[in-house]
Amino acid sequence: MPLISFCQDYVINLKGDTLRGTVRIFSIDPVDEVRVVVNKKKIHLTALKARAIFFKNDVYHSVRHGQTQKFMKVIKPGYLSLYGFNPPNQVNYNVLLLVKKNGQTMEIPNISFKKLMIDFLSECEPLTDSIKEEKFKRNDLNDIVDMFNNCNDPLKKGNTPARPLASLDNDKKLSELDAFNKKITALETFSAKKDVLDILGDIKVKLEKQETIPSYLYSVLKTHLANQPTVSDDLEKLIALLSK
């Protein structure tokens, strides 16, 4: 369990609470962990339970990558974000990852950079043309991210941003999610209740912001609720609705 960092900063959990204290981040496959000591009380959170970390003027987000959930350093945020993360058994955040708002990710390649970047950034033709003509290369990642965001981010294009609850379909999803939340709250002698409610809260926030819901959250819900047959059918129906 390699120690990544040690600091006096803060952690933001899934509910949006800020936990200020001495922070340590641990790189653990497949899910990173963070410990924050608040008034001598140790609080442990996995990367599934913490949203962000502030450490020495750097921000770290919890990011899904493949089969792992990592705390990654924010290099350039936006509609397309650039992150740095540490490979196994290392402490340097020198592996670079592009993450789109819809959840798509791609590690910055050393080989076939031009082809892979053109495929991944195909929504912005002016940018892919510039990469094809080698006006932008691997050392121009900040400019690449900026140009892609100018192409695709509604705020940067000057469009009116969509309202948080954009459609009746989204309203229905939120309504069903709230109903399922009440069923979980009513369960008795359920040791993972708080974990499930936290995940449902995170899903609700993503729905309200019209963000893509990562599929791993559904898997975690199924794992926690595997021994709760009274809500198994409701869970399957909810996942089917949210996945549309």
Structure in words:
- The protein has 244 residues and is an alpha+beta fold.
- The protein has 3 domains: 1-103, no CATH class; 109-161, no CATH class; 168-242, de novo design (two linked rop proteins), CATH 1.20.1440.
- It contains 7 helices and 10 strands.
- Strands 4-3-2-1-5-6-7-8-9-10 form a 10-stranded antiparallel beta sheet, covered by helices on one side.
- Helix 1 runs antiparallel to helix 2.
- Mean pLDDT is 85; it is low at 159-166.
The residue fraction in helices comes out at: 25-40%
Strand content is 25-35%
Radius of gyration: 20 Å
Biggest β-sheet: count, sense, barrel? 10 strands, antiparallel
What is the first-to-last residue Cα distance? 38 Å
Mean pLDDT: 85
As for the number of domains, it is 3
The main sheet orders its strands as 4-3-2-1-5-6-7-8-9-10
Low-confidence stretches: 159-166
Order of helices and strands: EEEEEEEEEEHHHHHHH
